[in-house]
Amino acid sequence: MAGGSQRVYKARIRSTQSLKKMFRAQELIAASRIGKARAKTAAAAPYAQAITRAVSAVATHTNIDHPLTQEEGGNRAAVLVVSSDRGMAGSYPASIVREAERLTQQLEAEGKEVLLYVAGRRAVSYYTFRGRDMVRTWVYGSERPTPETAEEIAQALLEKFLLTEDEDGVSELHVVSTQFVNMVTQRPHVVRMLPLEVVEGVSEAEENEALPLYDFEPSPEAVLDSLLPRYVEQRIYAVLLDAAASELAARQRAMHTATDNAEDLIRTYTRLANQARQADITQEISEIVSGADALAS
HAMAP family under this entry (predicted)? Predict the structure, then answer.
C-alpha cells in the first residue's frame, strides 16, 4: 500500500512541476508585454489630446447640432463589452462580465432594449453558453489590439447609432472595459461614449479675457463630420489599449499566485511521499524481524 502511495505522490509531483513551469513561463511572458502595452498607450496619448482639443473647439465655438452630439430619447441602447481572448488571468474576464450584466440590468430597468456588441473570446463564450443574442462579436487578439480593430468596431457602432429608431438604431452607446490603475489594481469601467459629451481641453474664459476666433473650412458641419468619427475611433482604441495592459497585469499576478501554489503543493506531496517511503521501510524491517524470529523459534 505504501509503495502504491509513493508512486501516486511522485506522479503528482511530476505533473505539478510541469504546471509550475507553464505558470512561470506565462508570468514572464505577461511581464515582458506589459511594458510594451503601456508604451503604446502613452504613444497614443498626444494624438488623443490633439483630436479632443480640436473636437472641443468645434463643439464649443459653434452652435450647430450634430447627430453624434444630440440627446435623443429612445428605447434602444448598445453595450460594447471589451474582454480578453485568453484565460489564465484570474477574475479579470469575470469582473468585466459582472459589470456588463449590472449595466444591462440597469438599462433594462429604465425600459431600454440592450443590444450587445462583444469583443474578446471569453465574453463571447459566456454569452453564447447562456444563449444571449449578440449583434456582433470580435476575436481580435486582446493582448495586442490594433488601430484597424478599433476602426472596425467604431464603424459598426457608429452605423448603428446613426440609424433612426424606426431603422432599429440605438440612442446611446455604453462601453464596459477595464481601467488600468497600476500593476495591482485594474477596475471594471463603464463610460457612455455616445451621444458625445466633449468637455475636455476647453477652459472657461476669465474676466476681460478675449476668446479666440475660429474659422472652420469648408464649414463647421464638415469639420465635425470628419473629426467626430475619428474621435470615437480614438476613444475605442484607447479603451482596447487600456484593457490590454489590464489583462496582462492580471495574468502576471494570477500566474505568480499559481506558481506559488504549485510550489506549496510540491512541498506537500514531497513530504507525503517521504512519509509513505518511511512507512514502507518500517514495514519491510518489521517483516524481516518477524521472519527472523519465526526461523529462530
Answer: ATP_synth_gamma_bact
